[in-house]
């Protein structure tokens, strides 16, 4: 496919840089403010005055930014990047895991924004020539689709740093972690979790149980997208994990997945943001919910919630960073991507949230949680114990079929 080349602005965007004391001092200032906010936020999930977990986290991050500005730690001059990601505990892990170090070492400030995925906003910015996002944390199918559309910048693997022992990046990354326009930074998993108090007569243990309303009555939480829901439905309906995408490749297979979803549709509460499932579980709005494994882990560790993850049938995936085509800050964005793709940066994130590094050399760098001190390895999605009946997301299939499945899913929801 021939890509259109978006026009670029020649002038760098105005942004924020560290004031007196240098960027390293400002990173320390922000870190202190962030830890202070986390330390003062004593209320558990479900008691945030209606904001919910995601709202509380984003409000806290906004307060940190405002406090840093008020402290004179940032000004309106100097280089910056707008980095868009998934918010919540994952955003916090990225800030503490490597954003601060990047700013301290380069002087480039990070303006962190949140979204719920998809390419609509990226597409609109590129098509109108009004690009104000620089780097976006995307799903891998979107990284491929966006590359084909020409709305994401191609990435030269040669720009990525070698591993700590000198291994070239292309050999150090796990398979599928690098695409033409995306650089994978971590592996995460979509699982389901439950609150044990809701099941006094015995808890669910398999993905089949998620669809069993007779033995395990109660409302379920699911993300309002077809991705992963179709896979879960087929696995629960008896399709072997190594045949899921071949089954979805047929009209009969797609129909079979939707029929399985029909069996629980009237008991589903749909979520859109990753912070919602822990909130719904804590509030008792649902008895079990699909969720990102790291969000449940964070609720367990930071909020002392008794949630239990069911790894059976998990769908694991790699999360890439991509550069928006037409960004006026292309050089800085490339520097950020190179920094984020180091084994040390990936491990930095993995010491705050249970997402596995996308580079082989990053795995041994993760030991214990940076704050709680617990061993992180048993909580990672790709440990041997968690890979029984696990499914690797087929991003090529979703890149080819996302539009069709999204349309069908929307029509199904409306029925």
Report on the structure:
β1, α3 (88-106) and β2 (109-114) form a beta-alpha-beta unit. α3 (88-106) runs antiparallel to α14 (343-350) and α5 (140-149) crosses α15 (395-414). Strands 1, 2, 3, 4, 5, 6, 7, 8, 9 and 10 form a ten-stranded mixed beta sheet that branches. Helix content is 40%, strand content 14%. The protein is of the alpha/beta class. The protein contains 15 helices and ten strands. It starts with 21 loop residues before the first helix and ends with a helix.
List keywords for this structure.
10-stranded mixed beta sheet, about 425 residues, D-Maltodextrin-Binding Protein, domain 2, alpha/beta, 15 helices, about 40% helix, 10 strands
Poorly predicted segments: 1-77
Domains counted in the coordinates: how many?
Answer: 2
Mean pLDDT value: 85
The gyration radius over C-alpha positions equals: 21 Å
Distance between the termini: 36 Å
List the helices and strands and how they pair.
Blueprint: H1 22-40, H2 52-70, E1 80-85, H3 88-106, E2 109-114, H4 120-128, E3 135-137, H5 140-149, H6 169-172, E4 183-194, H7 207-210, E5 220-223, H8 229-236, H9 244-248, H10 251-262, E6 268-271, H11 276-283, E7 288-292, H12 293-302, E8 308-323, H13 330-340, H14 343-350, E9 356-357, E10 391-392, H15 395-414
Parallel strand pairs: 1-2, 1-3, 5-6, 5-7, 8-10
Antiparallel strand pairs: 3-8, 4-7, 4-8, 4-9
Helix pairs in contact: 1-2, 1-3, 3-14, 5-15, 8-10
């Amino acid at each position: 496919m021939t890509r259109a080349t978006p026009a670029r602005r020649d002038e760098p965007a105005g942004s924020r840089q560290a004031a007196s004391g240098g960027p390293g001092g400002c990173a320390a200032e922000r870190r202190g403010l962030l830890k202070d906010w986390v330390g003062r936020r004593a209320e558990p999930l479900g008691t945030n005055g209606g904001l919910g977990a995601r709202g509380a986290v984003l409000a806290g991050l906004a307060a940190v930014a405002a406090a840093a500005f008020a402290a004179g730690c940032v000004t309106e001059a100097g280089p910056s990047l707008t980095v868009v990601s998934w918010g919540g505990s994952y955003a916090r892990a990225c800030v503490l895991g490597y954003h601060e170090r990047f700013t301290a070492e380069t002087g480039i400030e990070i303006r962190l924004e949140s979204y719920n995925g998809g390419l609509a906003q990226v597409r609109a910015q590129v098509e109108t020539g009004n690009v104000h996002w620089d780097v976006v944390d995307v799903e891998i199918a979107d990284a491929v689709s966006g590359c084909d559309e020409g709305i994401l910048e191609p990435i030269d693997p040669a720009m990525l740093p070698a591993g700590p022992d000198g291994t070239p990046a292309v050999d150090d990354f796990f398979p599928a972690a690098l695409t033409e326009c995306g650089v994978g930074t971590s592996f995460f998993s979509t699982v389901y979790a439950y609150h044990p108090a809701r099941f006094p007569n015995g808890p669910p243990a398999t993905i089949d149980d998620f669809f069993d309303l007779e033995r395990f009555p109660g409302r379920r939480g699911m993300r309002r997208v077809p991705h992963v829901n179709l896979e879960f439905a087929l696995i629960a309906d008896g399709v072997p994990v190594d045949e899921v995408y071949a089954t979805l490749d047929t009209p009969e297979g797609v129909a079979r997945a939707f029929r399985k979803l029909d069996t629980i549709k009237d008991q589903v509460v749909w979520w859109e943001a990753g912070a919602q499932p822990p909130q719904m579980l804590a509030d008792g709005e649902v008895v079990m919910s699909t969720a990102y494994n790291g969000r449940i882990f964070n609720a367990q560790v930071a909020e002392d919630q008794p949630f239990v993850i069911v790894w059976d049938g998990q769908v694991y995936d790699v999360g890439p960073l991509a550069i928006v085509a037409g960004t006026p800050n292309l050089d800085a964005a490339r520097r950020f991507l190179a920094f984020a793709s180091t084994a040390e940066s990936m491990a930095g994130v993995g010491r705050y949230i249970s997402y596995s590094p996308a580079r082989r050399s990053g795995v041994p760098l993760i030991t214990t949680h940076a704050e709680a001190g617990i061993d992180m390895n048993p909580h990672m999605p790709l440990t041997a114990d968690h890979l029984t009946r696990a499914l690797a997301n087929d991003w090529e299939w979703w890149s080819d079929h996302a539009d069709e499945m999204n349309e069908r899913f929307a029509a199904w929801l409306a029925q």
